[in-house]
Amino acid sequence: MSRSEPNPPLRSVRDPRSLRALAHPARIALLEALALHGTLTATEAAEIIGGNASNASYHLRTLGSHGYVAQAEGGVGRERPWRLGAAGMSIDENDEDPNVAEAARALSDVFSERWAERRRRYHVARDQYPEAVRRAAGEGQALLFVTPEEMTQVKDEIVAILLRYQDRVEDPAARPEGTVPFEVVVSNVPFALEPEPAPEPAPKRAPED
């Protein structure tokens, strides 16, 4: 995908079974490893995330059955390489289907825990990174007084910027020399700690005689 082409929409995952299948640290670790390396066999994946090739192969097949990964060309058996089925996805923690919403929230919690752990590890070891990487990394915070519609627009515009570089996740050959994998987390929550109370229900009218 060239930078002049429109960004493809993220895959929307609304099947509770697919959401629950991914809410497993080893399976998320496999997706992360494939995003970094492009293609991996079960043996290679096990060396990266830990465990043995049999477990990695099982998790890869499970991910494949839900479309998260796909088999790449070449190899046989556990030496057959795998690749990402799609780079990126969207999940809705407020889906109208309560089963979907519950599964999406559970998956989001696992993602958040892994991000928080990577953030913690970076802060412990940041002095070991090159100065250019340290200067590029960082955090920011802002308080916005916007309508929900305006906040949605802000979020969509940020995601659109991130999607400009989506092809580099899908195709390692598209990564320019000197690229570094940075993780960008977009999080926006209401600043007020308590939601506004729900409106009082209208009083029931007494039956007329």
What labels would you give this structure?
209 residues; mainly alpha; Arc Repressor Mutant, subunit A; two-stranded parallel sheet; 8 helices; globular
Topology:
Layout: E1 11-12, H1 16-22, H2 25-37, E2 39-40, H3 42-49, H4 53-65, E3 69-71, E4 82-84, E5 89-90, H5 98-125, H6 131-136, H7 148-163, H8 166-170
Helix pairs in contact: 1-5, 3-4
Write down the Rg: 21 Å
What is the β-strand count?
5
Number of helices: 8
CATH architectural type of the domain at 11-138: Orthogonal Bundle
Q: What is the rounded distance between the termini?
A: 73 Å
Strand order of the largest sheet: 2-4-3
| Unreliable stretches | 1-6
Q: Structural class from helices and strands? A: mainly alpha
Strand content: 5-15%
Helix content: 40-55%
Main beta-sheet strand count, sense and barrel state: 3 strands, antiparallel
Encode the helix/strand succession as letters: EHHEHHEEEHHHH
Question: Can you tell me the overall shape?
Answer: globular
CATH superfamily of the domain at 11-138: Winged helix-like DNA-binding domain superfamily/Winged helix DNA-binding domain
The CATH topology annotation of the domain at 11-138 reads as: Arc Repressor Mutant, subunit A
